[in-house]
Amino acid sequence: MKYTITTTKFLIALIAFVSLSACKKPETATFSYAFNTGQVDTAYAYDGTHASTLAATLTLDEIKKGGTTITFTLSNTMSGQTYNIHAHDAADPATTPNGTPYDETPNAILFSEHIEGTGGSVSVTAETTMSFTELTTTYEGFLVVHDPLQTISTTNPKTYVILGLFAQ
Asked: Phi and psi (nearest 5°) for 115?
């Protein structure tokens, strides 16, 4: 018995295959961050009075039309305190005014938010035009959460209650 595929059936099968292949499911990834005890650099370990039970997660969700949704969650926050959170692009310390390994101006286009503590877990969501792939493979930067009990400083990492590599 000889099997033949008509041109019409072949085209229908090809269109179905291409359509299903094009329906790629958006990617998602979650990253966990512990209280800053010097994981990035022991010289940058937190120095202050905030409880060390604070922890964070960063979830990236690819947007089909392009860009990425960033959801940041802080756990064990202090009620009534405002936590400033943002990304800093990595930099050569020889090129920054205070010798920091990051651009001292936060990257507000990527992520710059604040959260009001409730005594529990709180979240904030933002969108960036940077792709999911760029954020998870090529972007070099830091995720910073400032101590709400101290004056904000972008040049003193010892005031960061959370400090980690962004999306790593």
From this structure: -130, 140
Q: Which residue has the higher pLDDT, 156 or 18?
A: 156
Structure tokens at 136: 């998870």
Chain segment 124-141, per-residue pLDDT in tens: 999 999 999 999 999 999
Q: Encode burial over 32-45: b for 16+ CB neighbours within 10 A, e otherwise.
A: ebebbeeebeeebb
Reported pTM: 0.83
What Rg do the C-alpha atoms of the chain give, in angstroms?
A: 22
CB atoms near residue 139 (< 10 Å): 20
- DSSP one-letter string for 34-82: ---SSSS-GGG---SSS-TT-EEEEEEEE-TTSSEEEEEEEESPPTTPE
In a domain, 154, yes or no: yes
Q: Specify the CATH number for the domain of residue 90.
A: 2.60.40
**Contacts for 10 with CB less than 8 Å, ≥ 6 apart:** none
